[in-house]
Amino acid sequence: MTTQTLRALKGQRPIVCVTAYDTPTARCADEAGVDLILVGDSVGNNVLGFPNTVPVTLNIMVHHSAAVARAHPRAFVVADLPFGDAHLEPGDVVKACRRLIQEGGVEAVKIEGGLPLAPLIERLVQAGIPVMGHIGLQPQQVNVLGGYRRFGQRVPEADALRADVEALEQAGVFAIVAEMVEQKLAGELVRLTRVPIIGIGSGPDCDGQILVAHDLLGLNERVPSFVKQYAHLHGAMRDALAAYAADVREKKFPAVAQVPGKPVLAQPSN
Question: Has residue 203 been placed in a domain?
Answer without folding.
Answer: yes
